[in-house]
Each structure stands twice: as structure tokens, then as C-alpha cells.
Write the C-alpha cells for this entry.
Amino acid sequence: MINAAAPRLGLVVNPVAGLGGPAGLKGSDGAAIQAAARAAGVLARAGERARQALASLPDGTPVLTGPGDLGEDMTREAGMVPVPVDLPDRTGTGADTRVVTAALVAAGAELVLFAGGDGTARDVAAGLTVSGSRIPVLGVPAGVKMYSACFAVSPQAAGALAAELLAGSATVVEAEVLDVDEEQVRTGRVDPRLFALVRTPAHPQRSQGRKVATPTGDGAAVAGVAAGLAEQLRPGVTYLVGPGGTTAALLRRLGLAGTPLGVDVLRDGELLATDMDETRALAAVGASHDGNCGRGDDACPGAGVVVGVVGGQGFLFGRGNQQLSARVLTAALGGELARDRLLVGATERKLTEFGGRPLLIDTGEPGVDRALAGMLRVTTGPGRTSMYPATAANGV
Amino acid sequence: MSLPIATKPALRRFHQARWDEPIVFELDAPGERGVLPPQVEPGVREVVGDVLADLPGSLRRPSAPALPRIGQARVLRHYLRLSQENLGADLNVDVGQGTCTMKYAPKVNDQLVADPGLRDVHPLQGEESVQGALEILWRTEQALKAISGMDRVSLHSTGGSSAIWTNVAMIRAYHASRGEAEQRDEVITTIFSHPSNAAAAAVAGYKVITIHPDADGYPDLDALRAALSERTAAIMVTNPEDTGIYNPRIVEWVEAAHAVGALASYDQANANGILGITRARDAGFDVCHFNLHKTFGTPHGSGGPGAGANGVAEHMAPFLPGPMAERDGDRFRLAAGGELSIGAVSAFYGVIPTIAKAYAWIAALGAPGLRAVAETAVLNNNYLMSKILAIPGASAPYATGRRRVEQVRYSWQELYEDTGITSEEIGVRAADYGTHYWTSHHPYVVPQPFTLEPTESYSRAELDEYAAILAQVAHEARTDPEMVRTAPHNQTVHHTHHDDLDDPERWAVTWRGYLCKYPDAPQHRRP
């Protein structure tokens, strides 16, 4: 029996999240940036955003929190009962988020609600990894950059979703955690990487509201996408399989253990190589054309690419899968960037959450971006596809 | 001196009944009977003998059926109590079930089909003895031909999705007759078309391609063109779509499909906004269907009996299911389907009582009346839209500033971002005021969706009441979200648990299945 009064919600606030945004500093990582922002008169907003989220929970809910401004203070302000965890050595860096997250898990949290941006999401995911835990996490949007797919649309929505999860009425979906190296952004380069796959709550879209059977859980929907991708794989083609939860499900379906955060090479149901960087991916594509596919000279049908849609902003290329560079894509798909060898998978749910906004392509080569843009056939299930537009991101 | 009538509050102080009524099987009381058939009188017995003696052994049950034994009065109370525990179409302002066209189904038509001359006909009777029923079939077809512009209309389909299945079956047979069955393995639909189009196509073996709306919410013609090919068997689309937006380029859609040799199938299940205004044939469609229980004023009947009608252009007529009623002078007969016919889609000739009600409804209104239905439904819808859009937090995504046809898919996204209250929670709380709504087909393309369709059946005062309820609940979401989140408070049941519905392992679709699956489940004692 779970003690009804035992706190089940964990909260960690990144007190400096969002500082750099209003100051035009493109993020808040690093003590110097934070000092510059404070000097410019910017107030941290993560605490206030966390308080707004907690206001959507029933009054008096006990909450496991980070100490002080890492969660305890705003929990009390919101009328909840904070149960702070220990943080023996406060560093004022992301390490605090990681240590607090691990402590929340150790104290029995069933959900980690965090207030911050992509950097905070990354630290929370790292804290879970340290704990060996896969409990869901949910972001209260309070940062400057939020490429990751684990943020609610507003603080109030985050609180409501957290309450639903704790009540057992939310569904749980897989979400990518992406983060940019802010030093590079400030020098004009955007290079966000995929750091983790986490689980995050979502509204279940209830059975009784349905007029037609659809996969009940997101897991079933993702498995359906994987099945749809699998039936399109062609013999002898060497596929570069991009990172993310959808492509990981494809490899699982084929009985393969790939690299969820990296690019793997797949041919005829076998993994030829894993976790490729750009150079090795290029080499794999080259080999696919050189009679090395196991079918003899001239019989090798070449290469293909399988990707999911990464992050909360709907990137196809250029966020989290930079290994699939313009050079790699051109080599794999040919100069014409043949669409029939580019397999894109996403659940209908994920597509619809983009609200009609096109999928984004940012390979770093505008010509390649333009060639890939247009109407894509996105696989949404076995025998099911959706026409969905993709566009060049123009260095978003 | 008479007492003054008490002033009513602005919104009803509704409270639904809660009877905690057991399942009917739990009411079994050994020894009770609903009906005691009289003993056969001795004189009769002497003349006819033992009439059951001729019953073959194979038809005799070895044991009595496990039906509940209940006295008549208790049965009556059981069903009256259940009837008090729902918000049926005859009870509430049922405009929240958008796309379903919950209009008033005239009660006089129930009396009509209860007439023994219609109620008691048997499908195996000779044609000469059912001339009236055949005439109703024939006349209903003529009316629906005029309404759709199509060359033939079959009434065999027993519901809306059944009719969509008949459409895709005819499409498949058409391509097979031309030797293109294998080549054409794709069907294209739109995400705002009724999902049964995608489902029926998938069941028929087709790959399904879904078109998302363009930035303005219209079906994306460029996406269609990118999807069409020599592999396309058909486009299967609803218009107006679930959003209430009419595809202004529908003729171009049909022409684009025809240009690659594909057929065009029109889901007109809900034609309530376009009766007498536009016709499937005028846009060039090859096949279409109506739900008689939506547009044509027959009850939905909680899953049945409904009825579908399939209209086809002349080149598709050979594929229609048979037999169909034909007129020879002043006599009516049944003509068998031809060799290209897809065969039977129902046991006999369709759902005769529902067809008869639809025929009566059409005949009572006449052509000007049908157009008045559409005009009134559209007017009601746009009036209600003006009231809903005045509620802070509500919006109607897409085609901003334009009018809609017979329904609107709205969004509470702004309210959700402000309060964390979902559309589903708003709909549940509305049940505390004696009405409710359904959200949307899945997936939710419009975020936090709700879909209202007022039809022609509701007065302005009733639409005002409905809008006032939603305004009140939206206000509560901002001022007392906890109350909304924990709703319903005045209802028969509190929150339902959907997890069971999501898990086939938990399903028990019959009482016998339930007892098998959960042999130790405690049963209610009969009160």
C-alpha cells in the first residue's frame, strides 16, 4: 500500500533559467552570462513559473523539492507542503539539478516536474540516468531555448498534466531532450544535439471520446509507425537510421539493439555498424554503392535514410541528428535527393501537435534544404502515411 | 389569489438521477416471470394436437436460456431508471455531438412504422403482398437521386460506416473489372474526413494516405496532387469537413483524381448544411453516401438501427448491391443485382423501418422544406459560433473571419494554456448543467477541441442556453479550476475509468463473458 500522504511529485527549479533570454544573451548557461543578465536588471522567472504550475494542483499537496530556490520556496508560496531533499554541496550550476533529481528519485518521486529550459531538461535526464530511473519528467517552460519535446505548453498546463499523471489518468509518451551548446549559438553556430530520451505525460484522448479505434497508447502508436517503416525497407539497401524514439522502435521490431541517440547502419535486417559520425556514415554510404552489399557488383541498390521527427519543434534534419549532414544525405539519396529512399516516421499525434507548421530542415546547406523541402510522405502506421510539408529552417 | 411562479436562475440547477441500478442480469429472481403465456384451451388442443412435436430435435435447447427472471413492473422500473441516467437527444440541448447531426426525429414517424402493415412484413413474402414497402424503397431512391444528383441510389447499407464500406467495395470492384486491382492499391483521404473512410479503405486492403489541411484549414490541393498517382484507387473525402469548412476547390479535387484514373467518393453522411444547395454529382463524384439517421431525421438509436444510402453515377451502377426495387407501370418488383454487383451488404433490402421514416421526413418537407432545413442549420450554426467566440479562451482555428457551414470545430487551447483545464474537463463539467459535448475525432488536430452542430432543430433560446453554459464553465475554469477538474458533481456517475476500455484484456462484451472472465466478481443483491 502506498501511503496516501507520501509525496509523489518531485520538483526541481533551475533558479537562473531564462535569465539570458530577455537580455538577448541566447541562453543562461555560465556564471558570467547570468551575472551579465542580472546586471541588465533581468529577474529570473523560473520560480514564478513553477509557482503557477503548482497552483493547478490540489491545495496542500505534498511536494518533494529541491531546497530553497531550487523548489522549496515557491512550493510554500503556492500553498503546498514542501518536503525538501538534501543538497550538501550547492554549486550554482547544472550539477545542482542533477543531484536534486537523483535525490527526488531516491525519495520516491513518481514524476519530476522541472522549471527551466533545454539545459535543465538535459540535467534532469542526466540525474535520472545516474539513478537508473525511467520515471516521467515534465518541463514547466521557463527557459530561453526549448527544443526538447518534454515541455508543457504553459505552466498551468504543466501543473494540470502533473496532477493527471499522479491521478493515473495521463498517458506517457517518449520525448527527446535536445540542447544547444550556447557558446556556439553566441558565436553564430547552431548545433543542438540529442542528449536523452525521456518519458513525459500527455493527455490520453480518452477511449469514450473516440468514434473509431486508434492505438490506445503512444507506445502502441509508435510500434505501429515502426511496423509501417519496416514494411517499406527494401532488400539490399543500406539504410542510415537516425536517432530518436521512433527509429529505436523500428530497430527493436527487427530484434536489433541500435543506438537510440545515434546513427546506425541497417541492411537486410542486420546492423552493420552503430553510432556513426559523419565521416563513418559517408563511408557506409560509399560502400553501399561499391558492390559491398553482399550481392555482387552492380546489384547493390544503394543507400537510404530512415528518420523520425526530432524534438518539440519538428526537426527532420539538423537538430539532434547532425551526423546526417548535407554531404551524407546527398551521398545516400543521390544528387536528386530521391524521396523514395527517404523514410520518415512519426505518429499522427506528433504530426498534429505541430499544428500545421511544416517540419524543419537545416542541414547547413541551403541547396540541400530546399531540395528536401516540399510535401513528404510520412509513415504513420502499417499501410498508413500522411502528406505533410517540410521546409528549410533557414538557420532557426 | 394564485401563487407567483418562482423565478428561475439564469442557468438550470440541474441534477441527474442516480439510481445505482444493477445490471438487468443481476435482477434475476427465481420464480418470477414477465409474461405467463396462457394455457392452451382444451378445445384448441384437441384440434391442433401438440404443435411442438414437429420441432426438430436440433432446434430444441437442452436447457433453458439463462435470461433473467423478472416481473413486468420491475422491468419497467429498471428501464425508466436507466432512462433517467442519461442525457439523450430527446432530453438535452444536444448540439455538442458535432458531426453527428443530432436533430429532432419526429415522433409521428415512430407511429408510422409501428403500423402492423409495415411492422409485420417479412422479407421472404411474395412481391405482390409487399407492394407498399417496395414502393417506399423506390420512392426513397427517387428522392435521394434528386438530392444527390446521382443516377442510382441503393438503400441496402445498414449504417454510415456500412455505407462507406459499400462505397469502397464498389471502388475495388470497378478497378478489378478493368484489370487494375493490383496496380491501384492506395486510397487518399483527409484528416478532417470521417475516419471510417480511412478505416474502410484499410479493411478493403488499401494503403491509406492522409492529407493534412493547409495553413488556412482547407484541404490541401497541392498535397493531394503530390499523393495522387497511377496507384491511386480513389479519394474518399467528407465535405464540409469536421471543421465545418466547405472545400471550395472540391471540383478540382475530383478532377485531379479522375486525371490519374482514380474514382472520387463523397462522404455525405452529414449533408445537413447542403441539402438543396449543392449535390455530389455536380462536383463530379462517382459515388457518395448519406446516413439516413443523420441528415434525414431518423433516430440514431444509440448504435442502431441506422441506415445508409449509396448514390452512384451511371458507370458505377453495375457494382451496386442487389436486389433493388424497380417500377413496372403501377407495380413494383425486386430486380437482382448484375454479375458485376458486389453482392449483399445486408441480410435483405436494408433497414426498412428507418428507410420508411426517412421517406416520411423527406415527403413531409418537400424540396423547399429540405432547403429550409439546410439554411436553418447553417444560420443556427453561425449564430452559435458568434456566441461561442465571445467566450474568452474559445476560438475557431482556421479560416478566421469566414463563416462555417453546419458545424464548427472549436478550440479551448487559450483557456487550457491559462488554466490547465482541458476541453474534456469542460465537457464533463457541462454535464452538471444538463448538457455535454464530445471533443473531436482522433487524433486531435485542433488542440483542445470541441465540435458543436446545432442542426435546424433548436430555437435561438436553446442555443443561447447552451452558449451560456459553456461561458459559465469557462468562467469557472478561471475562478475555481478545482471544481471543474473534479466534475461532474451533479451526475449519475463520477469520473469513469477509461483504462479498462483501453485494455482488451479487461473487456467483457456480454454478461456471460463477464462471468467467465471474472467468476469471483461479487454480484449485486437485487434490491
Chain B touches chain A through 51 residues (CB under 8 Å). The two ends of chain B are 45 Å apart (CA to CA). The mean pLDDT of chain B is 93.
